[in-house]
Recover the amino acids of this structure.
């Protein structure tokens, strides 16, 4: 029992390259930035985020930063949006990442909880990610200070990987539980013929386009519905079969691009994709990116050898790779 | 045989323990719970009735005979028991996750709405009376564009609120939505003197019906209306300082 616990502790806190957590930080900060920007640009902000005296419709609830900035009026809400934008930018460039994750968590919560009934799954996932970033150790990779000092974005530093593992777990829990609750309706499953997407895309509130030829898209939508359900429930496989993560992630990227293209569900797709760097450790990212860069370099040299095969592609000399970017042994 | 793992430091053990507790809390609280399906009236909605019938038939195939109503009663009891157990057993975890903002409710598109609503905002310009049905003009709609170009109906939070107003039983949500849109429309279009918001329900079509070009009829489900004078008065009332008697 003790040995098992020690193994778990070693696995949970094993140091790894900080690249994955840095990429996660940058993408999550970009999503928080987007929340602030739409708070400033959306016309419905006045309706939902301010009180009735200032033109709201009664959905607004007081939150920490908005109260501190003066209450539920348009000026304070705008100031809270600017604060969120500022904090997100500072987090994105990597200045005091833990502290800034915590502060951005409060600013994002202050905006998304202004109308709690209208907060979406994307808002909830963003808050979860910011909390995990606030408790995770960060390195110097993808920070502006490191870039200015060393001229490189990637650092060789290593950090304990527990934050990334918790992010990974959060993603698994989200997909699997949403898949499980879809089981209530046969429409997602082969039992109901997979007609869920066909129905959802007829809803004026969720469909991005209203004139799609849904009748002709039937086979694709049926397969898409059943695949969505299977993939969400099957996402748990990434915990037990790490070698399936690449395939699962590729399907996930396609799935979120599809959701974004066809449906209007706020920041959900964006935040979900921002979580994907945590599916792989920093070392795996570095090894993978190195292999990809080597493969691209090789391909370029083949092109230079046989220009007649690819006459439209100019021959380019392979880019030299630096040993400092190599994954540590 | 694996060599024994060396004992990690106390700090690492504490970090790992906190991570394990957080992971357990997230996993437990995220388990699907029927938070919104707690009244029998929820089970009377057409899409829920369809599902109940389908599942009753499936149970009948494997030899379990019961009516749709009996099945609904069993489900309601099961849902209530599970929710009671969850709220009591997971209370500390729910509180912890609420405190850190990480509420775990991943309810996304449980099933398609078989009777979605189309939302329209109409306006009355000039000196027409509200009873003059032919004088109402389309300002904006969830699927149609009218003369109000700068409307917020396609923004994400507006879509969510429109969905809630169409789905919920409460008229208050609809009234509030329409009041907000009326203020905005009247500010943008100076000659609009009254605004009304309407939900029209329609049955969704099957893929075959879609290919055949069938359009199901729309029926008026809900409406709300405000005139410019009503909104001016309401806004003035809202801006009045509270009377001394109302101050606690």
């Amino acid at each position: 029992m003790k040995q098992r616990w020690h193994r778990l502790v070693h696995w949970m806190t094993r140091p790894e390259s900080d690249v994955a957590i840095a990429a996660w930080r940058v993408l999550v900060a970009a999503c928080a930035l987007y929340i602030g920007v739409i708070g400033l640009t959306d016309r419905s902000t006045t309706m939902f985020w301010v009180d009735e005296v200032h033109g709201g419709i009664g959905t607004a609830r007081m939150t920490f930063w908005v109260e501190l900035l003066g209450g539920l009026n348009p000026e304070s809400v705008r100031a809270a949006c600017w604060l969120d934008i500022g904090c997100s930018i500072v987090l994105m460039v990597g200045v005091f990442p833990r502290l800034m994750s915590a502060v951005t968590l409060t600013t994002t919560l202050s905006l998304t909880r202004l109308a709690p009934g209208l907060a979406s799954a994307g808002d909830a996932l963003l808050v979860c990610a910011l909390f995990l970033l606030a408790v995770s150790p960060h390195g110097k990779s993808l920070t502006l200070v490191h870039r200015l000092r060393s001229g490189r974005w990637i650092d060789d530093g290593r950090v304990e990987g527990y934050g990334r593992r918790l992010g990974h777990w959060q993603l698994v829990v989200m997909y699997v539980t949403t898949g499980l609750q879809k089981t209530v309706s046969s429409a997602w499953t082969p039992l109901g013929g997979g007609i869920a997407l066909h129905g959802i895309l007829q809803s004026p509130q969720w469909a991005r386009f209203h004139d799609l030829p849904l009748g002709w898209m039937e086979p694709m939508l049926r397969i898409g519905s059943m695949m969505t359900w299977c993939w969400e429930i099957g996402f748990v496989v990434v915990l037990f079969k790490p070698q399936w993560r690449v395939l699962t992630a590729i399907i996930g990227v396609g799935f979120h691009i599809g959701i974004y293209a066809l449906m209007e569900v706020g920041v959900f797709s964006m935040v979900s994709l921002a979580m994907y760097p945590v599916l792989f450790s920093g070392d795996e990212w570095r090894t993978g990116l190195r292999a990809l860069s080597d493969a691209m370099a090789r391909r370029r040299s083949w092109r230079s050898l046989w220009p007649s095969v690819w006459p439209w592609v100019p021959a380019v000399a392979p880019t030299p790779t630096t040993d400092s970017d190599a994954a540590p042994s | 045989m694996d060599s024994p793992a060396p004992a990690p430091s106390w700090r690492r053990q504490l970090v790992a323990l906190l991570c394990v507790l957080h992971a357990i809390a997230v996993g437990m609280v995220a388990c699907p719970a029927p938070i919104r399906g707690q009244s029998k009236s929820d089970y009377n909605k057409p899409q829920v009735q369809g599902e109940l019938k389908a599942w009753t038939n499936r149970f009948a195939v494997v030899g379990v005979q019961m009516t749709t109503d009996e099945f609904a009663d069993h489900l309601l009891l099961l849902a209530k028991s599970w929710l009671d157990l969850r709220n009591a057993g997971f209370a500390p975890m729910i509180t912890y996750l609420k405190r850190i903002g990480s509420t775990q409710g991943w309810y996304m598109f449980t099933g398609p709405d078989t009777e979605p609503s189309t939302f329209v905002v109409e306006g009355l310009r000039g000196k027409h009376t509200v009873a003059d049905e032919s004088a109402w003009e389309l300002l904006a709609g969830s699927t149609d564009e009218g003369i109000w170009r700068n409307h917020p109906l396609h923004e994400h939070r507006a879509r969510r609120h429109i969905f809630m107003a169409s789905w919920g039983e409460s008229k208050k949500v609809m009234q509030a939505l329409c009041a907000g849109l009326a203020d905005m429309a009247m500010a943008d279009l100076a000659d609009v003197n009254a605004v009304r918001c309407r939900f029209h329900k329609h049955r969704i079509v099957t893929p075959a019906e879609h290919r055949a070009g069938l359009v199901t009829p729309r029926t008026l489900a809900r409406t709300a209306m405000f005139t410019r004078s009503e909104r001016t008065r309401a806004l003035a009332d809202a801006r009045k300082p509270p009377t001394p008697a109302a101050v606690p």
Remarks:
- Confidence is low (pLDDT under 50) at residues 307-329 of chain A.
- Chain A touches chain B through 77 residues (CB under 8 Å).
- The CA atoms of residues 300 and 316 of chain A lie 6 Å apart.
- The longest strand of chain A covers residues 15-17.
